[in-house]
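Quick illustration, no need to memorize.
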Amino acid sequence: MDRQEQLDRIASLTAEISELPKGYISRKVIGSRVYFYHQWSENGSKKARYLRDEEIAPLSEQIERRKALQGELKAAKADLAGLPAGRKKAEDSLSPYLLMHKEIPVAELWLDETTGLIQKTGTVLAEAHLPVGTVFRNSVLDRKSINEWWMERSIPASRSGVREALETLEIADTKTLLVRCCGLSLSDQYWIRPEGSSLAWEDINFFTNDFSEDIGDILFGAAKRSNAINFSSPDNTSDGNLKKRWRIIDGRRCLVKGGSNPYRQQPLNEVIATRVMQLLGIPCVPYTVIWNKGAPYSLCADFVDENTELVPAWRIIQTRKQPNNQSLYRHFVNCAEKLGIPGVVPFLDRMIVLDYIILNEDRHLNNFGAVRDARTLEWLGMAPVFDSGNSLGCDKTVFMMKDRDEIICKPFRKTHEEQLKLVTSFDWIDFSALSEVPEIISTVLSDERAADYLDERRIAAIRDLAARRIEVLETIARAAGR
């Protein structure tokens, strides 16, 4: 890169950084409710702004993006300086790693272990095994692209309880946890191996080896123990904003996830969504509810193993540039079909219908996707439906649930009614089976242990709302079948 290109790069980074929000997200508990605030400094004064629930995740992503760009800007300025001694010092502060896919070395990487960011890429050793959607140009792995993939593995800053956990762990950022556990996950087979290390996949992966519960305990509010913390845990690479952790139960890797105040409804909604999908024959990850200290938590087993991996929809749409005149739905379908993923459109039909019935407001591009064989890279099909808890008005009052403008929709349209128009066929729906849904909702939500969170009026409103949506769906399906 010549000097002018370096200057252009610095100007571009500076401009993008200036458009992104400063500061951090804080969490306060007042009575039985949790409130989130955006806090930052401006002209020497501290500022704060209350955040609505739907603002938390986007703002967190923007703040994380700003931090990453600031790291790139610092590196770009160092490159421009062109001082041999300074460059040597910067490079000496980085640690060399190999990006691994199971036992296969994929690419050379250099990480800043203080920030957890990838600062340099080297030789690509197995192009076919690069993470889906990363960019590889002129024999060089794009650092920005691989860094975005890497940061997606970290715990989001907006996760409930994460700031307190970081204080307990005495670390500044969740991304540094990635390095502590070699980037290992229970969603895929990628990891990083320090240069010169003899670490082997079969000895350290979390699918066939035990893992520490230290990080999970701290994420769930436990105090730091006096002895050293074991960072070897898949909890370092779990996404999402709700409190969650991995446990090994009867030999199975199981995800435990909580709900948000004041209704703690998400774990119960997961059970309702499971039963709706079972009525309709939709492949799904089955959820149950467990109770701890009077609060409900959803429990589900991992649906991938040491031979398979989940590739989120977000990664899939990164494989091709989206034309300006093409919808996100069509772009996703085209990308998936180009990769050779079978059964894409029938899967989307079923997921969209489910989300309409249960008023799912958080079907984003990272909680659905496809499964592939990690060794052969063969696409096995779309992943079973999972993570449906942010539905049935889980964070809304009864009044808000009745206001259609209060119900948001993802990922392809802004309203469920518009998204329902993308469905290509309703012939598979058994409406006689769906007649059981109101009773399922009443039964699950009326658990006596949930009485502190959900009253009869709220349960009746949720049941009736779902029943009306099923009636509307049947009318739409009949009209489409004429």
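Residues 3-91 form one domain.
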